[in-house]
Design goal:
binds glycine; alpha+beta; binds adenosine monophosphate; four-stranded antiparallel β-sheet; 4 domains; Rossmann fold; Dna Ligase, domain 1
Length: 435
């Protein structure tokens, strides 16, 4: 379910599953329409879950994979419960962990999960939020409490900008009424960001993917507004096995156990967004779904023996310990191309014709809301294309991904030219990580 590049990547991987006969994508995009074993379904509104359940029954579907968190919030899990059709989704109660920043922060405190210092404020607390910002001796991040498409966290460069952010969120409701009904002011953390994605089944078995790094800000050098993520690579060489063990022990397991303790069993993919600070890993956010754009690299890292459909079904059936899931050596990376106006949905209209030159490369292009109109591929806003590749070394992967990007053009096209550029010496990392 969905039409973004993450959903294209998931559908692409599911099409490779030996146990999968056919994939139906609701509504899909021009990229999923081109998959050999897949069909887009556009005559059903994806948010009409009752209709989606009927469709799944009519088509004899065995597994439903919703992409975006909104489906989880709107209770897709509940709609499929009792139908005999497996749905890879957590409950709407569990989705609060992603959807409500105050809930997530309070949860972390209850379960001793390391995170930035913070305070939550409601719409009535505009002045209190401003007083707090002026009073704390550190820089802050101001976050709309609810979902805002990855744009709801403002990283001000001064206390004045932080005060303005409070007005923007609570008074001017820049991110909408629901997302801006309250906010969290939290300590700005300095460090390196990583994404940890963990599959969790209903019997307590877990499997964590290699760590990846997203690039959230709009422009090179990590400046500009936050976006839905403009590129990712992994595995990240700086997350050593020892550090990974510490993250599992002090963050991922306490989160899953904490949820269980509170009657919220987690079945699905727990996405932990971390800042690796000089005083250890700190949680920036929890998401309850696959990462975007991490998934566009992740699917390339899974080995050929991994039957992705079987793995997702095993999460639902509690048998994750009994299926094969593994990755190949090497590095995957992806570079996201956006159109003019992105990330502002009011300015990002799409409708541009995409030219793609065939270079014979094995780079995979995952589509966003692209359309095929009169034989012409056009952008539909958001992130029209992501170029993803896998290679033995990170340097080779990056070169190949940028070569892929160079074969694409459309008016207003923007992409970050510095994916993974913070790493000092790409080529050496192969030895490091696989030794
Ligand atoms: P969030 O909306 O919580 O997912 O945050 C979006 C992005 O803002 C994160 O991926 C970070 O890049 C950045 N960010 C969020 N919280 C902090 C923080 N406390 N310190 C530094 N950067 C942050
Ligand atoms: N990579 C950011 C996200 O999936 O929320």
């Amino acid at each position: 379910m969905g039409s973004g590049p993450r959903e294209h990547a998931i559908a692409w991987k599911l099409c490779q599953s030996k146990t999968v006969e056919h994939v139906y994508v609701v509504p899909g995009n021009a990229g999923t329409a081109m998959l050999g074993k897949a069909t887009n379904i556009t005559n059903v509104t994806v948010s009409d879950f009752a209709r989606v359940v009927l469709l799944a029954k009519e088509l004899g579907i065995g597994l439903v994979v919703p992409g975006a968190v909104q489906y989880f919030v709107d209770d897709i899990e509940g709609y499929f419960r009792g139908t005999g059709i497996a749905c890879f989704a957590c409950t709407k109660e569990v989705a609060q962990l992603e959807v409500s920043k105050p809930f997530a922060k309070d949860f972390m405190i209850r379960h001793d999960i390391p995170t930035a210092r913070y305070q939550s404020f409601t719409a009535a607390g505009v002045e209190a939020a401003k007083d707090y910002i002026l009073q704390v001796p550190y820089p802050v991040v101001v976050k709309a409490a609810g979902l805002a498409g990855g744009r709801g966290s403002i990283i001000p460069s001064s206390k004045e900008e932080a005060l303005q952010a409070v007005d923007d969120i609570l008074v001017h409701q820049k991110f909408g009424r629901e997302a801006g009904s309250s906010l969290v002011v939290e300590e700005y953390l300095e460090g390196t960001e990583v994404s940890i994605l963990t599959l969790s089944d209903c019997n307590g078995h877990t499997w964590t993917f290699p760590t990846l790094q997203d690039h959230k800000r709009m422009y090179d050098g990590d400046i500009g507004p936050n976006t839905g993520g403009l590129g990712a690579y992994g595995p990240t060489p700086f997350v050593t096995p020892t550090l990974m063990k510490e993250i599992e022990k002090s963050i991922v397991q306490p989160a899953l156990e904490g949820l269980l303790f509170e009657g919220l069993k987690f079945v699905g993919c727990l996405y932990t967004g971390l800042m690796l600070t000089s005083s250890g890993p700190r949680v920036l956010e929890f998401n309850v779904r696959f990462g975007e754009p991490e998934m566009q690299s992740m699917v390339l890292l899974l080995d050929d023996e991994t039957d992705f459909a079987e793995v997702l079904l095993a999460c639902i059936n509690g048998t994750l310990d009994q299926v094969h899931i593994d990755t190949v050596p090497g590095f995957a990376c992806n570079v996201v191309m956006t159109g003019e106006g992105y990330p502002d949905p009011d300015l990002d209209h799409g409708g541009e014709v995409i030219e793609m030159r065939d270079t014979g490369s094995d780079a995979v292009f995952f589509h966003g809301q692209t359309r095929m109109e009169d034989g012409k591929l056009t952008t539909g806003g958001g992130k029209p294309l992501t170029c993803a590749v896998i290679r033995d070394t990170l340097r080779e992967a990056l070169d190949a991904a940028y070569e892929g990007v160079a074969s694409v053009s459309f008016r207003g096209m923007h992409y970050r030219k510095d994916i993974a550029a913070r790493l000092p010496n790409f080529s050496d990392y192969r030895a490091l990580i696989h030794s």
